Description:
Number of strands: 0
Number of helices: 5
Shape: globular
Distance between the termini: 32 Å
Structural class: mainly alpha
Largest sheet: none
Strand content: under 5%
Helix content: 55-70%
Mean pLDDT: 84
Amino acid sequence: MSNATTVLNQLQHLLPLDEFQTFVNLQKADKYTKKLSCKDQLTILLYAQATGKNSLREIETALRIQDSTWYHLGLETVARST
């Protein structure tokens, strides 16, 4: 299987994720999370912004259609409730 860099992956590389994770840890933002971490939420919001999604239902539907490619984004679950 060949490795391909997606546009979303390229966007993530532009962000200082180490600083983001330091800030999340400092604010204890992931303290009570079970499945959806702040990094996952950032990834989903970047996806929604890049693809022009307007609602949670659109985001969830689009990501569920492509559920076999979640591991490329580092996602484990996507649900409207989270």
